[in-house]
Amino acid sequence: MKITVRDTLGDLEADFRTIARRAPRDMAKVVRDNAREGNRLAKAFASEQHTMFGDEDITYAPSFTVERIARYTYEYGPDAAIGDGSQASGYEFGSINSPGHFDLARSLDIIATQFGLDVDDMVRSWFWPS
Amino acid sequence: MNAADVRAAVIALLNAEPVTESAFGYSTGQLAELGERPAGYTEVVVMERPRPGQRVGGAGTTHAWRIVTRAVGASEALADEIRARARTRLFEQSVTVGDTSGFITSPNTDNPIAEDGEYFSGPSEWSLHL
User: Fold this and answer.
1) For chains A and B, what is the number of CB pairs under 8 angstroms?
2) Which residue of chain A comes nearest to B66, CA vs CA?
3) Which of B1, B27, B13 is nearest to B95 (CA)?
């Protein structure tokens, strides 16, 4: 059996054109999906603290939102304008009388992993589409 | 190795010789035992971050830890001084727990010193890989 693979620079050029077209959309999607996932996790941690373990400031968790602030930049977390969102710094880091909850820091620990993997997958998919 | 071991090592670093001032690093439990809070101190909280296998490029047996130091002072100036003192003692210092050593990296986040009940306090977050 003999396998012959032929490729030309024309194909490479076509690939690059496709990548240039797809990249902005794919990158925006990876950032958006991870920001949403981070917010979902942080909100779940906050909700655990404020509804499962207590009933103080139950509108703290619902104040977590995701916002696109630039093309590839998203921001997530408690919104000071919604419910108890303004209590954020106290809840996140705690005070001398109450321990911090670290909802955002813990969510970051988790999405930091997925974010890296997603970027990897994205770049791979440009060259080897599944 | 667990969070309590790492916390003890960090507190030992804060209170290490030569001490030109009184010991100022405490765990939450030690503070509760003191009864009355010192005029200025640093509260140390340690949390383990996701295991190596869950991190991108994570291999081997390195564990990541989140160290939170809360600089507390009866006045803003004292809290500032406590934070600076803790920084000198922790920044890029080597920590040994059992037979593993690692370095504390610069603060990931340094929140402003703000009024906290009758005190002024501000948390700083550090990373340590052991």
Assistant:
1) 44
2) A105
3) B13
Residues in B closer than 8 angstroms to A93, CB to CB, are 68, 70, 111, 123
- Rounded CA-CA distance B4/B96 in Å is 13
Residue A130 contacts B, CB cutoff 8 Å:
no
Which two tokens mark A15? 């690939």
Look at residue B121 and tell me whether its pLDDT is greater than 60.
Answer: yes
B30 touches chain A (CB under 8 A): no
pLDDT 10s digits, A102-116 = 999 889 888 888 898
Task: Give per-residue pLDDT as tens, A38-75.
Answer: 999 999 999 887 777 777 778 888 999 999 999 999 99
For residue B20, what are its two tokens?
């030109």
Distance CA B86, CA B26 (A): 12
| More confident position, A14 or B59 | A14
B128 DSSP β-pair partners: B65, B104
* E strands present in chain A: 64-70, 73-78
Instruction: Please indicate whether, in this complex, the C-beta atoms of B121 and A109 are within 8 angstroms of each other.
Output: no
Query: What three-state secondary structure class fits B65?
Result: strand
Q: Which of A108, A109, A119 to mutate to test the interface with B (most CBs of B within 10 A)?
A: A109
Look at residue A78 in the predicted model and tell me its pLDDT.
93
Instruction: Report whether A20 contacts A77 (CB < 8 A).
Output: no
pLDDT tops 60 at residue B94: yes
**Is residue A20 predicted with pLDDT exceeding 90?**
yes
Contacts for B105 with CB less than 8 Å, ≥ 6 apart: B92, B126, B127, B128
